[in-house]
């Protein structure tokens, strides 16, 4: 590699490093996606609101789970949830809940030609499940990564990874 090529490569790497840094937690993008994360998991675990969830995922949504496998579309992801939600007793507490580990959430903006088009959000969360006495018990702790895309001025999850599930027991 000639000296000019090396210099161009070093400049490109420095620009890439500085433009793809994590968003500070007090910035608007971080706050928007933190709120979206909360809405997403509230709809899934507390409300069982698949109509709201449908608005939070792209049609070509993909879900990768280290224990549950691969789900190829928004419909394939939401249909089983919709069936399970229909079976729930509305007078009973939600059978599972998700807890975001404080301080674990990070957001990394994605740009193309200087324009924000998406973001990577990652964090750690844990789950609790009701036992036979309707008392929440610790379940697993896991890492997650969401690829959010700005689609017609709406933030939607295009890809979700849920991995490194470990028992909290």
Radius of gyration of CA atoms, rounded to a whole number: 19 Å
Overall spatial form = globular
- Tally of DSSP β-strands: 7
Q: Identify low-pLDDT runs.
A: 3-20
What is the N-to-C order of secondary-structure elements (H for helix, E for strand)? HHHEEHEEEEE
Pfam families: DUF4440
InterPro entries: DUF4440, NTF2-like_dom_sf
Protein name: DUF4440 domain-containing protein
Description:
Helices cover 34% and strands 41% of the residues. It is an alpha+beta fold and 169 residues long. The chain has one domain: Roll (Nuclear Transport Factor 2, Chain: A). Strands 1, 2, 3, 4, 5, 6 and 7 form a seven-stranded mixed β-sheet that branches. Strand 4 (106-112) and strand 5 form a beta hairpin. Helix 2 (28-47) packs antiparallel against helix 3 (50-56). The model is unreliable at 3-20 (pLDDT under 50). This is DUF4440 domain-containing protein.
List the helices and strands and how they pair.
Blueprint (H helix, E strand, L loop, with lengths): L2 H17 L8 H20 L2 H7 E9 L3 E3 L2 H14 L8 E5 L5 E7 L2 E16 L5 E16 L2 E14 L2
Parallel strand pairs: 1-7
Antiparallel strand pairs: 1-2, 3-5, 4-5, 5-6, 6-7
Helix pairs in contact: 2-3
Give a summary of the structure in a few sentences.
34% of the residues lie in helices and 41% in strands. It is an alpha+beta fold and 169 residues long.
Task: Give me some keywords for this one.
single chain; 169 residues; alpha+beta; Nuclear Transport Factor 2, Chain: A; seven-stranded mixed β-sheet; 4 helices; 7 strands; disordered N terminus; NTF2-like_dom_sf
């Amino acid at each position: 590699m000639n000296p000019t090529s090396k210099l161009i490569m070093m400049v490109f790497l420095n620009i890439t490093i500085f433009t793809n840094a994590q968003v500070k937690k007090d910035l608007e993008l971080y706050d928007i996606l933190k709120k979206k994360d909360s809405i997403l998991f509230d709809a899934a675990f507390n409300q069982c609101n698949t109509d709201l969830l449908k608005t939070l995922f792209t049609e070509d949504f993909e879900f990768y789970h280290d224990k549950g496998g691969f789900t190829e579309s928004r419909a394939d992801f939401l249909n089983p949830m919709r069936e399970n939600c229909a079976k729930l007793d509305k007078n009973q507490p939600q059978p599972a809940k998700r807890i975001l580990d404080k301080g674990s959430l990070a957001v990394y903006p994605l740009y193309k030609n200087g324009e924000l088009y998406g973001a990577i959000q990652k964090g750690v969360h844990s789950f609790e499940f009701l036992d036979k006495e309707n008392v929440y018990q610790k379940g697993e702790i896991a890492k997650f990564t969401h690829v959010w895309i700005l689609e017609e001025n709406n933030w939607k999850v295009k890809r979700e990874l849920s991995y490194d599930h470990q028992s909290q027991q």
